[in-house]
Amino acid sequence: MELFRIKKDIPFMRHALVLNAVSLITFLAAVFFLFSRGLNLSVEFTGGTVMEVAYEQPADLDAVRKVVANLGYADVPVQNFGTSRDVMMRLPILQGQSSGQQAEAMMAALKAQNPAVALRRTEFVGPQVGRELLEDGLKALAVVIAGIMLYLAIRFEWKYAVSGVIANLHDVVIILGFFAFFQWEFSLAVLAAVLAVLGYSVNESVVIFDRIRETFRRQRKMGPVQVIDHAITSTISRTIITHGATQTMVLSMLLFGGPTLHHFALALTIGICFGIYSSVFVAAAIAMWLGIRREDLIKTPGKKGDPDDPNSGAVV
Amino acid sequence: MNRYPLWKYAIIVVALLIATIYTLPNFFGEAPAVQVSSGKATVKLDAGMVSRVERALEAARITADAIQFDGNSVKARFASTDLQIQARDVIDHALNPDPAERSHVVALNLLPRTPAWLQSLGAAPMYLGLDLRGGVHFMLQVDMPGALTKRAETLASDLRSALRDKNIRHGGIRRDGQGLELRLRDAATEAAARDVLAEQFPDLLVSARQEGGDYLLGAALKPEAARRIQEQALKQNINTLHNRINELGVAEPVIQQQGLDRIVVQLPGVQDTAKAKDILGRTATLELRMVDESAEGRAAESGAGPVPFGSERHLDRNGQAVITRREVLLTGENLTDAQAGFDSQNHEAAVHLTLDAKGARIFRDVTRENIGKRMAILLFEKGKGEVVTAPVIRGEIGGGRVQITGRMSTVEANDTALLLRAGSLAAPMEIIEERTIGPSLGADNIAKGFHSVIWGFAVIAAFMCVYYLLFGVFSSIALSVNLLLLVAVLSMLQATLTLPGIAAMALALGMAIDSNVLINERVREELRNGAAPQTAINAGYEHAWDTILDSNITTLIAGVALLAFGSGPVRGFAVVHCIGILTSMFSAVFFSRGLVNLWYGRQKKLKSVSIGTVWTPGQAPAKAD
């Protein structure tokens, strides 16, 4: 069985300009939503108390909301979590009351309304912890980007490093844009997913760059654009299959992983889809605009053989 | 060209063997158990406890599957939960004959059912995080400025009495934040005060300035002294927490320092957060009293008479009664430090106590008036007092430095010092993070994580087998070897497995197949370009290797950054992610090549390779030079 029967190199780069414009618009839209709506940060970042309770029967959310409102919490999100019997609520930090007291008071009130309620979990995070987590997350992001750029610059060349990282950031910002647009909860697990996508998506660019380098070496008659097209075409089958496999795993998490892994898997799904697109049309295209050349990569043999190389004139 | 030397196969076999051994414990599940641990800091468990538990069980005709001692606790495993509960009651009754005075904690626990031969190899199942097994998690912030301020106050009153002793008149000592300010009238007293500071307060950094004819001496804690105070405060708070948590009867509490000023407490299986918090916040108190040495008191001590009015009867560690007066001379508040050490003259083990200025003054007065008599140091925990030590006063003791000696071993001296220190928290603490996970949620999370991994794995393996035929089968076997190695390494490291960790496991498998897809696609490509089967296999692996290395290193960079900066769930994810990348390099490249070599490598005239249809375009294949 062979899924991809490609006779000729597909001229991916012919449409690069249009697609890059599309990318730019998506990117700007993501940035816009990030700033206009902001991320719906989880309690881990903002501080506060999360309570998850389970009922024996499907929960009556309105009744629960009434109980919550009676305790003096305004605008507290009360929602089903996973199944219709589980209810999750996020309580803001109250001055002069510890989270334990908050949770106990809430439990007592819920028990009074319906005795068949059981506490599944509570989670309290102080405000200073949240700020630190956010800072650490940003630091991790910076280190990942710097590390990957450095590695690519050493292994390939700075043009590849720049294009690889831009493609990466494009993915990350778009994931964040999705989370801002739909107001999905952005938790620590999602942050982990976003950073994993960084490593994963650059992986894709690396595979294509590797092929570009190899094609530069082997096909001396091809110009950079043709080389890029050839590299993408010859790796496209692997790209689709690999991402398909990873996506299968992520899909399995989405289906079986329950609510805790839901947003994690969602972030990965967006990351994988945009990862394919961005490594082909963003990373490779930017590398093209930056003007990658054979000489950049194949230094020693290039310099030595250049004056006598009959093919050197064929470089466009 | 497609043959591995024998040593490479040997590496594979050995790696698989080790991985299998260390993965095995995860399949035995857990058995109900009873855990016995010390309920008080003064009670130490030793191997003799095993036979005590054995005897108690024998007397009640309960058979335990295994009884073991692990240095801190004795654990007995049982066949069923019914037996477990019966045994708990029996052991509890045997070890704590007096229900009011529980010297041992007897708790229900789950123990891995790992066979003894595996245990002797050090194999143990993966350590499950709280989100997978349920329990309570606290993060406490130690108030370090508070600890330093407290210390500065102690120093201020120490300084006051030191100056009084030397008859140096001063215009007042003021505590300014964590520093002190001493006001003096003239240059002569300033010089004298400086001498006192240099001599008796090595921890202080002195600076001088003049203000309107007055001489001002500023004294601040030296940075290294401040650091030492903070370290001690943290250590002491952890000790105190340990003692208090013992009371809860939690089977495997985790109490760890995190960063410079934080303590993480994890109590698996505990559901009652309110009680846990209550106990964490409780203080034990230390009291200094005189021993009642009247005739009635002595009679009561030997058990011959009633306890006289105005006195109380307490037991010491050996169960010996000590009759003390009710009047409290000093409390733990006046004790700044207690350290084990040696007597400078006869090199006997000793405990050195440091009292603050107020405590020192009281202590000096008490000792001057009571030479030849006995005093008692009592520790009150859970409302019950215990005599830590009851020494005879040999002479007047001033200066706030007290040494307790006499028929003590070094271990006892250490214990006593610990106990004295453990009485109170060195610095106030605040709960800044708290998580409770119910046991049903933990079990749910395990099932969900497990299903995600298994279904994803099955679909990928099925696809690979259909798409790449025999090579797909090899890839699938390599993938399962990856899973095996990953679980083995996690079990070996005893890294905490959390739900994000399981997610990372699934992701690692999804990403590991990338290497095999790269290889298989390369081999197909070589075949398409007209290479002979053996050459194609070799070239496919060779060419794919560069790409695999590059892409794994970039992924690893992200993983390591997550590990370095992440906390909690992110860290749990990162650990598995990084290990998964490393194991995938072994399994997907080295191991799968081994399989291929074993299958095809011996065939000299290999005509075709089972890697699915290799479709060649109608035109001549592009020539590679």
Walk me through the topology:
The complex is a heterodimer of chains A (316) and B (625).
Chain A: H1 16-36, E1 40-41, H2 43-46, E2 48-55, H3 61-70, E3 78-81, E4 83-91, H4 99-113, E5 117-125, H5 127-155, H6 158-182, E6 185-186, H7 188-218, H8 224-256, H9 258-289, H10 294-297, H11 299-305
Parallel strand pairs in A: 1-6
Antiparallel strand pairs in A: 2-4, 2-5, 3-4
Helix pairs in contact in A: 1-6, 1-9, 3-4, 5-6, 5-7, 6-7, 6-9, 7-8, 7-9, 8-9
Chain B: H1 6-23, E1 30-38, H2 48-59, E2 66-69, E3 73-77, H3 81-95, E4 104-112, H4 116-120, E5 127-128, H5 130-133, E6 135-142, H6 144-165, E7 173-176, E8 179-184, H7 187-200, E9 204-211, E10 214-221, H8 223-248, E11 254-258, E12 262-268, H9 273-280, E13 285-290, H10 295-301, E14 311-316, E15 321-325, E16 330-331, E17 335-342, E18 349-355, H11 357-369, E19 375-381, E20 384-389, E21 401-405, H12 410-422, E22 429-437, H13 439-493, E23 496-497, H14 499-528, H15 533-565, H16 569-600
Parallel strand pairs in B: 5-23, 14-20
Antiparallel strand pairs in B: 1-3, 1-4, 2-3, 6-12, 6-22, 7-8, 8-10, 9-10, 11-12, 13-16, 13-19, 14-15, 17-18, 18-21, 19-20
Helix pairs in contact in B: 1-13, 2-3, 6-8, 13-14, 13-16, 14-15, 14-16, 15-16
